[in-house]
Amino acid sequence: MNKICVVGLGYIGLPTAAMFAKSGYEVVGVDVDEKVVSSLNEGNIHIGEPGISELVKSLVSDGKLKASLIAEEADNFIIAVPTPINEDYKADLSYVEAAVEGILPYLKKGNNFIVESTIPPRTIEDLVCPILKRSGLVPGEDLFISHCPERVLPGRIITELVENNRIVGGINEQSADKAVELYNSFVKGEIFKTDATTAEMSKLMENTFRDVNIALANELVKISKKLNVNALEVVKLANKHPRVNLHTPGPGVGGHCIALDPYFIVDQAPEEAQLIAISRAINSSMPSFVIKEVKDLVSNGAKIAVLGLAYKGNTDDIRESPAVEIVSLLNKEGYEVSICDPQVENQSYNLLPLGEAVRNSELILILTDHDEFKEFDFSEINHCVKQPVILDTKNCIKQPGSFELKKLGNYGKHFSLEIN
Ligand code: SAJ
């Protein structure tokens, strides 16, 4: 059982492929993108994730990891392709389907088949197994099938791949056992066995838990604005209770996971998933809320310097980023917008160095808590702005200098205890 074929070389597939290769498996990574495949075979990577670049380079040069446009025979197959959401908020499973169909010709008796991609409940049973049966192999007997959702936090992928506990959901016990054996090669966290459908639902509920809690924090901001309360201090103080963990409010929820996964549940059970649906709506309304805050500070036509386009600090990922929506809304409202994001490379945006982005601005709008912004001493740029005002939607700026620092959620009072 020494060869693994990983289909999908993105934020999850590539680090996973690398970890298996590092622990001694022969790994071939498959991707539909020619550029990804050719650059990987030269030892270069296309994702910005700490620690991956060096690891992949050495594995490729040692011949332990290679990339290919087509699958090949292996002992284990892992599917790690994206599951985006359609315009009607239903899961788009076309990449999963294509990936499973793509490996059909290479399946052999005794293979271990795993889906890591996040999928709606019942996908393994109702979609994946029927496709795999077309190979002529009997699921659970000739072919072991599991869902092993990834749980790693972008920015900490390499560490969390090893240390996090994992859920392994098999279509039967033997399938789960095979998957556990595989992941045991590098996972130091505990591995919990269950059935495939429970694993699918557990993964979705983890991200939904976070989305619902962030919605609660964001709703607190809106209530606090109405009642003139400092929501940020409320969060800190309430969290001094031993059983309370209010999350952090912000400009919205981005990324490819938390902002999408709850819809997979809502789509399957719309009548029942009321709280989940309203939480999504609250978080999706935050960009418009930020625009209202901006309007309270500067009038249309003003120049606004946006700091941060990525969906969260210290990542280059702009998928579903609230900042992207805020920039587009600001443009629609007639503001002149300049953007700085030192971590993002994206041809669609004219990304400027901080010093240039803030020139002649009347408002600096912080949308991402990158370290570069947190640590920046704003007294350095006092002279180049038209009006020294910062609206910090991430409550992260430490050295505002003589800028007036407004924080999203801080509407009240009056004196601060400055508790941590
Ligand atoms: N955010 C807030 N307030 C908070 C926490 C987060 O506004 O209190 C925002 C962030 O700014 C960001 C978004 O939510 O826009 C999501 O960020 P995140 O760091 O909470 O999570 P992701 O999407 O980067 O990664 C999540 C993780 N899931 C959980 O923590 C339950 C990760 O473990 C999963 O593996 C990943 O989704 C995934 O791939 O599903």
Structure write-up:
By secondary structure, this protein is α/β, with parallel strands linked by helices. 37% of the residues lie in helices and 14% in strands. It contains 15 helices and 13 strands. It has helices spanning 13-22, 34-41, 52-61, 94-103, 123-133, 157-163, 173-183, 196-227, 231-238, 261-268, 274-284, 286-297, 322-332, 354-357, 371-374, and strands spanning 3-7, 26-30, 65-68, 76-79, 111-115, 143-147, 166-170, 191-195, 303-307, 336-340, 363-366, 389-392, 404-407. The protein has an eight-stranded mixed beta sheet with strand order 3-2-1-4-5-6-7-8, sandwiched between helices. It has a five-stranded parallel beta sheet with strand order 10-9-11-12-13. Helix 4 links the parallel strand 4 and strand 5. Helix 1 packs across helix 3 (52-61) and helix 8 (196-227) crosses helix 10 (261-268). The longest helix has 32 residues, at 196-227. The protein is globular. The model has no long low-confidence stretch (mean pLDDT 96). Ligand SAJ binds next to helix 8.
Summarize it.
The chain has 420 residues and is of the alpha/beta class. It is built from 15 helices and 13 strands.
